[in-house]
Amino acid sequence: MSDHLQADADPERWVPLRGSGLGSGRRRRAAVRMLMTTAGIAQGQPGSGLMSFIAGRVVKAGLKNADGRYLAWSWKEDAHALAALAQVQALTPQVRTARAMMPMEYDDTEDFSNPHLGSGEKLVMDAPTRPGTPPFAMYTWDTGTHLVTLQAVSPDRERFLTFVPHIDALARTVRFVEDLEVGESNVLRLPPA
């Protein structure tokens, strides 16, 4: 395996979603539905059925074949209550442009520290302004070469803020492992302060 994400999700709270396996399909479908709504693809919109089908296939394939570029979990007590997705992507000019063009409400972030990734940002939208968008929390870390994100979403507006401490705990365990051979890089990496 090359560069990949790792995390230590609390098994008492989270169930990891894998590409296949007994019981994982129901949890994966629930997670995809929740995560799609934050991307603006809500059930009942034109094309939402097809988009959900495609997204489900992409997530399933991604979890099986993305070499650790994606990690996903659902809330153990109720698969329909909370889902989380961590991903890493190269910081291309297109990714930087997309981040710069995010809506203004995404500027309302706070500092969030992770012992493995260092200083990052946390955004909690417990009352999103876009109709049909459920509450969500998003964590981002810029490593200089990659963007690591963790997004968690819940359709339950009343319970969402009670989930945030558990999402914080998960976010603090996320790390990006770069497999470099000796002499492969001339960049000195220091651990987060």
**Nearest-integer average pLDDT:** 77
| Share of helix, binned | 25-40%
The SS-based structural class is: alpha+beta
- First-to-last CA distance: 28 Å
Number of helices: 4
Q: Rg, please? A: 17 Å
- What is the strand tally? 9
Describe the structure.
It contains four helices and nine strands; from the N terminus they run ββααββαββββαβ. The protein has 193 residues and is an alpha+beta fold. The strands form two sheets. A seven-stranded antiparallel β-sheet has the order 2-3-4-8-7-6-5, with helices on both faces. Strand 5 (110-114) and strand 6 (118-125) form a beta hairpin. The chain is globular, with a radius of gyration of 17 Å. Residues 40-52 have low confidence and may be disordered.
Quick summary:
27% of the residues lie in helices and 27% in strands.
What attributes does this structure have?
193 residues, 27% strand, alpha+beta, 7-stranded antiparallel β-sheet
SSE layout and pairing:
Elements: E1 4-6, E2 14-17, H1 24-38, H2 48-65, E3 70-75, E4 83-90, H3 93-100, E5 110-114, E6 118-125, E7 136-142, E8 146-153, H4 160-171, E9 175-177
Antiparallel strand pairs: 1-9, 2-3, 3-4, 4-8, 5-6, 6-7, 7-8
